[in-house]
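Exercise: predict the fold of this chain.
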Amino acid sequence: MPPEFVHAINSIRSAAYRPELLVRSIEPPARLAPHSVSLAADITPQQHGVDSPHGTGRFILLYDPEEPEEWGGAFRAICFAQAPLETEIGLDPFLAEVTWSWLIDGLNARSARYTAASGTSTKILSTGFGELASQGDGTQIELRASWSPLDHNIGPHVEGWGELLCMLAGLPPTSEGVASLQARRMTRE
């Protein structure tokens, strides 16, 4: 394994997360890059290994010493974050922008060095019908993003991603100057 990637893995292992977040290693996707590592995280799940009803996410770090042109470096971080919301919060016209800003604020607050950030924030509004009618209305927010870390210090990147997951779950921010939507959890019964 290349020394730069070993340093990146060690940096991930030394990352500090909020106590509400359970982070674990998972199998990385095959063939995206010569080297990769993946994490999954859940907001205080009731059962280990099961996605939390309060929010869940994935973080993948890719490493290619050939430095693909579209990455802008040897590393590429990819993340997914999802959380349920109450319907009125899902209707907020600024929800997508706020969600993206939480990721960027989380990275910047931890001095994560990166370039080429991109992503999508998706609001999902749903209504159950037929056998699913008892589920009623529901809302979710999802963020899919990627960026290129500029060095092998990846700990701040996974910590920023972890903060994003906690913010989506409605937990108060740990960084100064970060706004909160006071998102309350919506559980379908």
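Check your answer against the key: The CA atoms of residues 13 and 107 lie 17 Å apart.
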